[in-house]
Amino acid sequence: MISGLFLENTPFMQVIVAWGQAVQATYAVLDTGFSGDLQVTPQLAEELGLEVVGVTEVKIANGEVVRVPVALAMAAMEREIQTVEVLIAESMPLMGISFLTKFSYKALIDCKQRTVTLEK
Fold first, then answer.
1. Which residues pair with 119 in a beta bridge?
2. How many whole angstroms from its chain centre is CA 68?
3. Within 13 Å of residue 20, how many CA atoms lie on the same side as its CB?
4. What is the DSSP pairing of strand 38-40 with strand 80-88?
5. CA angle 101, 80, 1 (to 5 degrees)
6. What is the reported pLDDT for 58?
7. In CATH, what number is assigned to the domain containing residue 84?
8. 65-77 vs 5-7, strand pairing mode
9. pLDDT at 107
10. d(Cα 37, Cα 84) in Å, to the nearest integer?
11. So what's the pLDDT on residue 59?
């Protein structure tokens, strides 16, 4: 089980992201409306040396469709490593539903107690 944290009304989870010899631990918003794996900032993508492998169109929260660069990276959670698709965008880092599926996690968000956990 992995515990996250609430900042104001937003649940965050820590994830280890790596590419080549670069490794970063970052907090990402656990976003159940995001169907992808991970989204990171251009700054984090540059620090990791991520290589853009394509561009995809995504619908953002306001309904607008935008084109976003895509890269591959390795993500680690509880000593398990998976290859993940990473969207690179100028917004908060996000952890999406596809990420949870790849790692076989169940997300438990308790807004009353202000807790967020991931369980296998």
1. 106
2. 15
3. 9
4. parallel
5. 70
6. 87
7. 2.40.70.10
8. unpaired
9. 95
10. 6
11. 84
Q: Where are the alpha helices (DSSP H) in 6-118?
A: 42-48, 97-102
- pLDDT tens per residue across span 16-54: 999 999 999 999 999 988 889 999 999 999 999 999 999
Cα–Cα distance for residue pair 23/47, rounded to 1 Å: 9
Report pTM.
0.91
Q: What is the mean pLDDT of the segment spanning 90-117?
A: 95
Domains in the chain, number: 1
DSSP 3-state of 61: coil
With respect to residue 18, please indicate whether it lies within any of the assigned structural domains.
yes
CA distance 2 to 21: 25
The residue range of the domain holding 63 is 13-119
Question: Is residue 5 one of the residues assigned to a domain?
Answer: no
DSSP character at residue 120: -
> What single letter denotes the amino acid at residue 86?
V
The answer to whether residue 72 sits within a structural domain is yes
Would you say residue 96 has pLDDT above 90?
Answer: yes
Q: Tell me, yes or no, whether 97 lies in a domain.
A: yes
